[in-house]
Amino acid sequence: MSSIPLTHILFVSTALFFIGVYGLFTRRNLITMLMAIELMLNSVNINFVAFNKYLYPHTLNGVFFSLFIITVAAAEAAVAIAIIINLYRNHRSIDVEDAQEMKY
Question: What CATH number labels 6-99?
C-alpha cells in the first residue's frame, strides 16, 4: 500500500486555507464568514495530522491538537451562532454591510 506524499496533503491543506481566506474577505453574510473560518481551522487540522504521520508516526500529538481545535471550533461556532441569532432578532439582517449602519 503506497501512502500519499506529504506535498500533496500540504497542497490540499493550503488550497482549503486560502479558499477560507477568500470566503472570509469576500462574503458579507455572517454565516458564510463563520463557515470560512471553520474551513481554515480544518485545513490546520489536516496539517497537524499530516505532520504527525510523517514526522512522528508513533505518537498522537497531532491528533490530540486536532481534537482540541475541533472542540474550540465547536464552542466558537455555538457562541457565534448565538450572536448571529441575536443580531437578526434585533436588526432583521445578518449582512456585515448593514451592521455598520446599525445604531445601538
Answer: 1.10.287.3510
Let me know how long the chain is.
104
Three-state SS at 5? coil
pLDDT tens for 44-58 read 999 999 999 888 888
* Cβ proximity of 23 and 36 under 8 Å: yes
User: What letters, b where the CB count within 10 A reaches 16 and e where it falls short, cover 83-97?
Assistant: ebeebeeeeeebeee
Question: Are 31 and 94 in contact, with CB atoms under 8 Å apart?
Answer: yes
Torsion region of 91: left, alpha or beta (phi above 0 gives left; psi -120 to 50 gives alpha): alpha
Say what the pTM is. 0.80
